[in-house]
Design goal:
Blueprint (H helix, E strand, L loop, with lengths): L1 E5 L2 E5 L17 E5 L1 H17 L4 E7 L5 H8 L6 E4 L9 H15 L3 E5 L10 H9 L2 E10 L6 E7 L5 E7 L2 E5 L11 H7 L4 E4 L12 H4 L22 H15 L4
Parallel strand pairs: 1-4, 1-6, 4-5, 5-11, 6-10, 7-10
Antiparallel strand pairs: 2-3, 7-8, 8-9
Helix pairs in contact: 2-5, 3-4
Length: 265
């Protein structure tokens, strides 16, 4: 069984930041990057299954991003796995989740993967669309917000628990092959050892372009996207007031505030 685990290097804002001149994103000078938290849990889930079943399960992390995104793959390989895949070309710039899902699906087909473990969402944009879109591209079964996985290699079905609203969990059977989106708390992601980090640098990271996957320029980037960012704005800052004094004084001040909000009526 082969499990493909898409991971993303997400943007982390500095305390103070500015938008780009075109107003469509944050200026990169004000961004740091790290492995998406949800993807860390997804990779740990794959690692634990490999440890449980041995070499019969192969796990492969992949990402869609420029050379700097290799840092997230190295973090994964520092914990386990023997190789990784990175897909990038300048034509992929500004691709929406639908395009990223299309690329991941093509990699899954190329790798003849049996399962895809994706994080439920990414902490920078929070679309929660990539994993389920991959399932749609592949026409595979899917289970979202998964909190427990029970897999036997070569089984036609797997057992998973998924989170519902109100603290409820649903236990379901999913037909294989399938895409699972992994929720926080399903496990406790390990730290990479110093030895693992050193070994990761010697492990191969295959670099592909979209054309290697049979995609054209018109299939990716803005041209292939179903949505696009029109503009990004800073939300208006609210205000607060600490009301001091006696209970009577506080009540009087509250009454004044209410009157002001109602237009002095």
């Amino acid at each position: 069984m082969k499990i493909l685990v898409p991971v993303k290097q997400v943007a982390v804002l500095d305390e103070d930041f500015e938008l780009r001149d075109d107003g469509k994103d944050v200026d990169v000078d004000f961004l740091d990057y790290e492995l998406n938290e949800w993807d860390d849990f997804a990779w740990e889930a794959a690692l634990q299954l490999q440890e449980q079943h041995g070499d019969v399960i192969e796990i492969v992390p992949m990402t869609v991003g420029p050379e700097e995104a290799s840092d997230s793959l190295l973090k994964c390989l520092g914990k386990g796995g023997e190789r990784a895949i990175r897909v990038w070309h300048e034509s992929l710039q500004d691709s929406d989740p639908a395009v990223i899902a299309r690329v991941i699906a093509k990699v899954a087909q190329r790798e003849q993967a049996d399962m895809v473990f994706a994080g439920t969402l990414a902490s920078d944009h929070g679309y929660s669309q990539t994993g389920v879109s991959v399932a749609a591209e592949l026409n595979w079964a899917k289970a979202a917000v998964v909190s427990k996985v029970n897999i036997s290699p070569n089984a036609s079905c797997i057992q998973v628990n998924r989170e519902l609203e109100g603290g409820l969990e649903e236990s379901i059977e999913v037909q294989c092959p399938a895409v699972l989106t992994i929720q926080l708390g399903i496990n406790e992601p390990r730290y990479a050892s110093l030895r693992g980090i050193k070994q990761a640098k010697a492990k191969p990271i295959e670099v592909l372009s979209h054309t290697d996957l049979g995609l054209q320029d018109s299939d990716v980037g803005i041209a292939g996207s179903r949505s696009r960012v029109r503009r990004m704005v800073m939300p208006a800052k609210g205000q607060a007031e600490l009301i001091e004094g006696s209970v009577v004084e506080q009540a009087a001040r509250l009454a004044d505030i209410v009157k002001q909000l109602r237009g002095g009526v």
